[in-house]
Amino acid sequence: MPRVIHFEIQADDPERAVNFFKNVFGWKIDKWGPEEYWLATTGDDKEMGINGAIMRRNPMTSPTTNTIGVSSVDEYTAKIIANGGKIVMPKSVIPGII
Fold first, then answer.
1. How far apart are CA 85 and CA 8, in angstroms?
2. Are strands 37-41 and 28-31 parallel, antiparallel or unpaired?
3. What percent of the chain has pLDDT over 70?
């Protein structure tokens, strides 16, 4: 069964959000790439939960993104469309992540 494997939290001040989640929850958060994007490790991989990222808020996108791991993007794209869903962004490769 496909599971949520990654989340993205958008913030007006991402550096403030990074400090908030580090200080409150003890997350390990590291800058990733040239963009305003930080990868967040929320716990040990042996524990239940998922890791994610913090980024600058983009008013043109949804405020939260959840990534679901599937065996075939094309197969699940077809399922989404067949069940009334809408593809808002084409599939893409994320180097070093997926």
1. 21
2. antiparallel
3. 98
User: pLDDT digit of tens for each residue in the chain (98 aa)?
Assistant: 788 889 999 999 999 999 989 998 889 999 999 999 999 999 988 888 899 999 999 888 777 777 777 888 899 899 989 988 888 888 888 777 65
Looking at residue 82, its amino acid is A
Which strands sit side by side in the sheet containing 3-11, from one edge to the other? 28-31, 37-41, 51-56, 3-11, 64-69
Domains delineated in the chain = 3-69 (3.10.180.10)
Spatial distance between the Cα atoms of 39 and 82, rounded to a whole number of angstroms: 33
The encoded tokens of residue 85 equal 């869903």
In the Cβ-directed half-sphere of 18, how many Cα atoms lie within 13 Å? 17
